[in-house]
Amino acid sequence: MSDDTLRWVWRGVAGAVLVIGWLFILIVNNFRFSAPVVVIALAYLAIIAMVINLWRVGTAAVAPEQEGEEAWVRPIGPRTELEKEKKTLLKAIKEAEFDHAMGKLSKADADEMIRTYRARAIEVIKELDRLDAGGNEGARAEIQREVQARLALEKKSKKKNAPAEAEKVTS
Amino acid sequence: MNDQGVPFSPIAVVGTVSLLAAYALAAWCVAAGIAGNARKNRRLVSSSVYGLYGFGALIGLASALIIYAFVTHDFSIKYVAMTSKTSMSTWYKVTAFWGGLDGSLLFWSLVLAIFSTIAIAVNHRRHRDMIGFVVATIMVVQVFFLSLLIFNKNPFATYLTMPPADGRGLNPLLQNYWMVIHPPSLYTGFVAATIPFAFGIGALASGRLDDMWLGSVRVWMLICFGFLSLGLILGGRWAYEELGWGGYWAWDPVENAGFMPWFTATAFLHSALIQEQRGMMKTWNLCLVTITFFLTIFGTFMTRSGAVQSVHAFGEDNELALDFIVFMAVILVVAIGLIVYRSNKLSKKTEFESFISREFAFLLNNWILLACAFFVLFATMFPTISEALDGSRVSVGPEFFNKWMTPFGLTLLFLAGAAPLLAWRKTTVERLWNQFAFPTCLMAGTVVLLLIFFPQTKELSSIFAEQVELPISLINFGLIAFVFGSIAQEFWRGMMVRTRQTGSDPITSLLGLMLIKRRKYGGYLVHLGVAIMFFGFAGKAYDQMIDRTVDKPGIVTADGKGASSFSLPFEKDPDTGKIKTHNFVGPFSKSTYTFTYERLIHTSDDHKDAITAQIGVYDGGERIATRYPARWDYHSEEGQQTTEVAIRVRVAEDVYLVLTGANLDTQQANFRVFINPLILWVWLGFLMLALGTLVCLIPQFVVDLVSPRPRTPLGRAADVVVTILIACGLVFGFASQAHAAAPKPATGEHVPEGMGMGNAGGGYAAQNRPTTPVAEKAMKELICPCGCARQDIFHCDCESAARLRGKVLAILDQSGGGDEGYKAVIDAFVADYGEKVLATPKSSFPWLLPTFAAVIGLGALVFFAGRHWVKRGVAKPTPENAAAAAQPVEDRYVDKLDDELADINE
């Protein structure tokens, strides 16, 4: 059974336990929706949520270390900074155009400002292209790292399911 | 009961266990979060995130259990017995959860758990390299509050002996729908400030000091701003409708506790824009989120420790005070330490190009908002500081606050109108007139019209010090017109620009403009709301108040006149000594009000006895309303009567009636009548502010959903329908505010004459009223020592105030009035009661320190701006920009840039 399917099974179990519990509360109270009944139902929901999350606290903490886990932490690279600068410059160009249209900037001032922003934005785009083509840290390297990390996680979960699969085949 | 006869409550046991489990889990989250991110350990970080969710569930369980105890009347739990009773309605039983100190701390923890669950669930993938630090920071706060709950203020503590058969019940003053919503709103605002602080600490600890954390926290600070605004206005509304002193804001310490973080949150919302646009002020923004969070904790400390005196405060608790002081010290040490540690990464070479720019306007705005926050902090704590310094507790009344906050507020109002007219980086000087012409002309025209038709607006009021006098009302109204003109111009011109750019009709363009640039135009709506509120504030200067004793209810004649009608002697003519009488005249509406006292009604029910007066309200002889001011005497609260005011809301002024005393045997009644001009606009202004905040909070997916699609007649019709719906919603919201509380006679069994309450209130308010302006001025300077809501003896309606008013009149009679008489009164009272009896501090320290701080702050602002100022009006060509501009550009990059510009939805 894949991880996704298992997750949905557990969600279904939790949902069923919740609904059964609520039904029980209603039955005991003869289906009267009074304030105490509503509050007890909410308290029961809190108990279910607490149990689920406490379970996850434990399992997450003791899960075995995984290959490529370092890749999970994404450090700041020059690419991210450049992307941010490009976005800021593009917004600044739009803002300058709007301010000129609104009458806050003369044509000369607006043109000068936009010229300066455009020039810098083009430099940033060129730099991003250089990184894509194979600089220190391009998008390709970043994607590779991300894929590696996810593959490692999947490998791990497959290893866990492999004994169960093997049993199925032999029987 | 168990076998030993000690009360046993399974709810209390399970509740306490939940708190203990939550405490342990929070400690785990702190450790796992810090270790996980520091050692780049995914497992520990994931564990801490799930722990935060589990913590929320445990606190939810504890909260549900305490509410269950309330609704099932489990009086073996002390907190339930202190704040609830069997006869209370279910709704008030639920809201009693946050009615006392213990429950309010648990409620704080619950709201923070809910908010943090949402914030972490939304952001933990995006910020996974710092989310552990964020979780740890939030959990440290939770550990602190749980420590208070478990070791000091356990809401599940039970009686050790026989519990009471019934509880005490909630204070009758809190059994009011405004008071139900007000504390949760304020707590929500306080708690919302924790999230930005946690992300700020996370960014500092992880070194992730790009702007990603800013995007995540801006929304939370906006939520903080929105809920703080709501909480503050609800508190004002409650005070106005419940307390019966005719006002809505008195600079009470508890009110100030919510106001201080509001200033810094507002400052952050503006300076965050500078960081996003220009990459400047990173350190400043981190300081602001820290200060905002610190002030929320400080405000909580103030109201729960006994550091300040207030009728709203929870009381005095030295142990709690010490806990808070230690926690606040930890906050400051850790935050400042991290900022200093990361100062290299935070500093950036910034260029400040022009003083005529939006950046500089925002800088000024930040300086003033911070000045407001620290002034309010200083003035609120000054009585405690003075007591610590020389043993005498000095009072600081509303007048002292108003003298400083009025000029600050007017400067902010000016900036609210001026900043939208300026461009980022710089505004072309030649275009300034084009931008400022319409708003300035509107302001000038308004001032001229006011001088002609409402000359009372040119009366002088003092600011900063007695010697500095300006026509504050005139300036206020002028600036309001300026802001209206500025915002209207921005909307109009923006709409026309977008119409030209997109080719759509004006309404579609306007809607599109507001959605695409929702942060800007939502902000403009907020500015408009603030201007409307200032319009309401302006009316305060024209309040009229009068007290009257009427011997018997009378027969109402056709023209509204009769033996029982009253309009009061207002002042004694100093030359003739005769009483000058005139009717109440609305200062802006020119309505002439008279009132008839028609009957006194006594009713009684399970909760209370009520004495209600029926008053006919007349304008120019025409009956416009019947109102029922009352006094309620709750059976459970012996000796405490509540005032149920009756308000006739009108656009130009409220007519506000208070029954200050009544004698059922003789049918004599004492009334206090206020005419409160323009007060409706305070509430309406808030509605506009709330609308603006909601516009700013519209998420991107909503904008994407309603993005331009093929323009069909149906699509255009839908736009018109949406516009009409929004307009109707606004009108409905405004109209509903006009329907203020106008209590009808309390229902219940009518009590026959001769039985029941007898005297209600005694009518002290009407005794020894001032007959000269000097007497009135002196009475407004002296705080009533009865411990009521810090009112002066002019306004307070208790017996002590009446006696002291008599003393003032006697001293003035002996000394001959005038300035010498005023001085004699002040000296006599200071000799008897100490300086704490004065509403305005007389020593120079409270005046000098804010002046000094303001000057230093302004100097720092100019220094910072000057250091980074490049050259006025000209952008400095940085080496990168100059080199880049000089090179010929390949067409493909130009095309790529144009494509990217076309993709930006702005």
Question: Could you please describe the fold and organization of this structure?
Answer:
The complex is a heterodimer of chains A (171) and B (906). Chain A is mainly alpha-helical. Helices cover 81% and strands 0% of the residues of chain A. Chain A has two domains: 3-68, no CATH class; 75-160. Chain A has helices at residues 3-28, 35-62, 78-102, 107-134, 139-170. The longest helix of chain A has 32 residues, at 139-170. Chain A is flat and about 80 Å long. Chain B starts with 9 loop residues before the first helix and ends with a helix. Chain B is of the alpha+beta class and 906 residues long. Mean pLDDT of chain B is 81; it is low at 556-564, 567-572, 578-582, 738-743, 746-760 and 870-877. Classes of the chains: A mainly alpha (171), B alpha+beta (906). At the A-B interface, helix 2, helix 3 and helix 4 of A face helix 1, helix 2, helix 4, helix 17 and helix 27 of B.
Q: Please give the share of residues in helix of chain B.
A: 55-70%
Ends distance of chain A: 16 Å
Largest inter-chain contact set: A-B, 62 and 70 residues
CA radius of gyration of chain A: 28 Å
Largest sheet of chain A: none
Given the helix and strand composition of chain B, which structural class is it? alpha+beta
Mean pLDDT of chain B: 81
Outline type of chain A: flat
Distance between the termini of chain B: 69 Å
What's the total number of strands of chain A? 0
Query: Count the strands of chain B?
Result: 17
Shape of chain B: globular
